[in-house]
Every structure is written in structure tokens, then in C-alpha cells.
Amino acid sequence: MTRGEIQSRILEIFKEEFEIENPGLDDDLRDKHEFDSIDALDLLSRIEDLLGSSLTQDEKKQAMNIRTIHHIIDYVELMAAKRS
Amino acid sequence: MERRVVITGAAAITPIGHRKDEILDSLVNGKSGVAPLREDDLLSGYIHSKVFGTVGYPIAYDFDRKYRKTMGPVSFYACQVAKEAIEAAGLERGFLSSGRVGVAFGSTHGSPTVQRDIYKNFFSRSQSRFSSIGAVDYLKSMVHTTAVNITKMFGITGRVIASSTACATSSQAIGFGYETIKFGMQDAMVCGGADEYDTTTVAVFDNLLACSTDFNATPHLTPRPFDLRRDGLVVGEGGGAVILEEYDMAKRRGAHILGEVIGFGCNNNGGDLILPSPKGVAEVIRLGLENAAISPDQVDFVSAHATATKMGDIIEAKAIHSIYGDVPYVTGLKGYMGHTMASCGVIEAVITLYMMEKGIVAPTLNLEEIDERCAMIRHVTKLHEFPIKIASVENFAFGGVNTSIFIKKFE
Questions:
Q1: How many Cβ atoms sit within 10 Å of the Cβ of residue A56?
Q2: Class of domain A3-83
């Protein structure tokens, strides 16, 4: 998966799942879009679908500080690289 | 400190309609909300009772995703009726978040639909998702889900009472809300209950041989409270809410007052967890009268719990007679919509308010031939124009929990 593909999948998830359309890639998701810890956990579940494998508890905890779409893309890239 | 408590908002989603006009139309025209049980892929094929008190019309929800994300079907009902009741009462956001407003709201067991999905995933061997139990599934399904989704949606910061006593859930919510205001702990309470469409509840009562089965081909003819041909209860769905408010405050802000809660009784039979107790039921009526500081002859309408089970209706009729004789009109509103479980108490209270306002007493639907063992009370078999002044709403639940609420017309 290229970075561009990851970005487009993540933006699609944000639109479909979280009803957040075209967020700025560096927007603080919590401040600007009320994206909370419940949403973050749901997002991790969607990322597992995207990766085709489970995330470990430690990997999930690592994601809890993510604040922007850019951070999410970085995170998915990292998790995908670990699995390839 | 004892303060007067008035009702300044009311709303209900019921099998016989959503808004006041629809509900009154069903009462006046004898329309039933009982429909065929929906097919599901789990239980419906095994259940003998094929009828359900169904909310069979669309509801135009307009909740943002940030609220929807923690709501199962039961909380959609709860938040919708709470929204309508709050709007009707005209309570402002600042007051709702002042700490002086609380919520007393419940359901039988949260959202069974969400719980079922959790266990479906849990037991599935072919589940493709890696985290099959969602992050919010607990928030959607937990037993106090209705109460806290209401607090979230309206920014309510006061007390939360999440009663969950099956069929007495929402009557307890009203009663505990009443006491909370009466004794000065809060100035207003959003009270009520809700339950969603659920075949597992039907299965529970079906197993206990308590469900109606003789009218599967003619759902509108059942349940039949106090009728000779009654053959059990019909499970239903719905939601209802009332806004209770301290009288002086309501008066000061010019609120439209629908009625006054003047008393509440609550007790337990202290024994059998299923069969109602004549002694327990009579005692809860007596407790409520004492709490309201009125005599039995002042009550002119009783909304009976009347689920249409063989024994329950006889026990209740005898208990009503032992306190009131044959003076007040008695209606079993479940004849119209079945037993809406956690929401039955508040729905019956809201309908009582509607009848008070309109000056009518609706008959018990499907009461065609009164069972002589229930005949000692003043049954309502046709629509009456009658100005109800003081009404009692009675509800009894599995576990031996009994409640009586006394509502006075506000003049």
C-alpha cells in the first residue's frame, strides 16, 4: 500500500464512519472535529481491517497519542511495514 | 423541606402513535398497536406467541453522529422522547447544565439488539473482523445506556438514577424523580423509560406460559385485560418521558403545567419473584395514598397495570377493590399496545395526562366480556367524557416490585 493509497482509505473511513469530510491533514482531530477516544478505538478496528491483521495491545496503546490525519497515515505505514 | 412537584413536559413513542394527537386518535377510535411478531434468525421460529406491540412507523431522528455513536435502538427512543419533553417544557440549555437538573431513566436491560450482536460475533468462528466487539458496544448496551445518553445529548450534569426493574422501571423513575425534587436535591428531573423491539423478552415470557397465543392470526384482538378470553400478555416496545419540576420555579418561569405528582408508593412483595401479591399490590396503593395525603374516594381514575395474564388481572382487580371499592374508573391501557416493558409506567402516565387534558376516559381495548373474577371494579368498556381530577398509575414487575403514582390535574 502506497502512502497515497493509505491517505485515500483513511479519508474514506473518516467520511463514511465518522461523518468528517475532507479534514485538513494537520487538523487537531479532537479540537476541530470532536474526534474522541471512542472514535480512536473504532478507527483502530478499521485499521485492522485495512492491514488484514490484528494490532497488539501495545500497538493500540501507541496509537492513543495520535492527533492528526498525518499521524494516522504515519502509524498505518509503520504497522504495514512491520507486517511485510 | 417538602416541595410541590409538577409535570411541565411529556412525550411518548408508542405502538399506537408518537405524538399526542396520534395517541389520542387511537384511544378515541379503539386502534390497536399490536402486530405480527417480526421474523428474526434466532428465536422467532420457536416462540409460540406471534404478536408484538410494535412501533411500526418511521421516526425522523436528527441526532448528530457524536450522539448516535453511543446509542443502541433503545437510546434512540429515550433521547427522542427526552428531547420532545424538554422542548415542550421549554427548559434552557444553561439550566440543564446547572447541576440542578438530573435524569431518572431506565430500560429493562439496555440494548438487547447490541448485546445479541456482541455474542453473535463472540461465538462466530467465521468472523472476518479482528476486533469483533466494537469500542462502544458496551456504551450502547449497558443497563444505564438510556439515562447517560440523555445526559450527554443535553449536557445534563445533575444526578443520574438508572432504575432497571423490568415493568416498574419507568414508574420508579418518575417516583424517584418526584422524591428527588420534593426533598430539594434537584429542581427538575427528566424521567422515563424505553425498551426496543426484542424477541428474547418474548421468549422469556413465552417460556413462562405468560404470553398470548390464541390471537396470533388477529393481533389487534390481544391482549385482553380483564376479559374472559384473555390468554396472556403481549410484549411491546416504546419510550416515554416526563419533565418533573419544582412548582414555584415552574410557576415563576411561566411554564405550562400538565399535572402535579402528589404521591408515590413503592414496595416489594417480599417473596415470589413472578406472581403478583394481593397484599403487596394493595399495600403499594395504600402507601401512595398516604404519601399523597388523600383518601381513596378522591381518586377518580386508575390506570391499571393489567397485563392480561390469567392470575395477574384477578389479583390486581381484587386489590383495587379492597382499597377503592368500585368508585374510580379503571382502564387497562395495555389493551391498546401490549406491555411496553420498561416504558409502560411512563407511557401510561403520559396517556393519563393526555386524557386529563382532553377530559376523556378511554376504555380498556378488547374488554368485551368481563371475567366475573375481575368484575368487582368499575371497568371502562366505552369512551367516556369525564374530567379526571386525581389519577393513579399502577405498575408491578417481576421481582415483586410494585409502584403507584398519583397525579392531580392542575387547575
A1: 11
A2: mainly alpha
